């Protein structure tokens, strides 16, 4: 054995921590699902029973939570689907360094709270609340 010290640096998150498995038959409207490697919110679920040797299938219609695109997927109800870890965090706006759609309200002296949604390594401002004058 050598006396050298080895250090390993992790430059990225483990891919497994971004999603978790859930049985397709238990995912409901209003829940989240990964379709085509995009985090989506489920807007419609329909389950079809197939023939005597087939599997029941779930048809998911979902909206991408970041770009608003509609995606669809059909999965056997007994199979697992990836479900993203979706977090929503509120921040009080203190200062703005770049131009943006928040700048007008901030210049008027409003006290603003920004909600940021994050999932699968992406994050985006999803809401802006005025909590009164400063």
UniProtKB/TrEMBL annotation:
One of the GO BP terms on file: positive regulation of translational elongation
InterPro entries tied to this protein: IF5A-like (IPR001884), IF5A-like_N (IPR048670), IF5A_C (IPR020189), NA-bd_OB-fold (IPR012340), Rib_uL2_dom2 (IPR014722), Trans_elong_IF5A_hypusine_site (IPR019769), Translation_prot_SH3-like_sf (IPR008991)
TM ranges: none
Region described as Disordered: 1-22
Source taxon at top rank: Eukaryota
Name of the protein described by the UniProt record: Eukaryotic translation initiation factor 5A
Protein species of origin: Cynara cardunculus var. scolymus (Globe artichoke)
Keywords: Hypusine, Protein biosynthesis
Modification comment: eIF-5A seems to be the only eukaryotic protein to have a hypusine residue which is a post-translational modification of a lysine by the addition of a butylamino group.
Domain Translation initiation factor 5A C-terminal intervals: 85-129
Chain's role: Translation factor that promotes translation elongation and termination, particularly upon ribosome stalling at specific amino acid sequence contexts. Binds between the exit (E) and peptidyl (P) site of the ribosome and promotes rescue of stalled ribosome: specifically required for efficient translation of polyproline-containing peptides as well as other motifs that stall the ribosome. Acts as ribosome quality control (RQC) cofactor by joining the RQC complex to facilitate peptidyl transfer during CAT tailing step.
Family named by the database record: Belongs to the eIF-5A family.
Comp. bias (Basic and acidic residues): 1-12
GO-annotated molecular function: ribosome binding; RNA binding; translation elongation factor activity
Pfam hit, one: IF5A-like_N
Keyword Protein biosynthesis attributed: yes
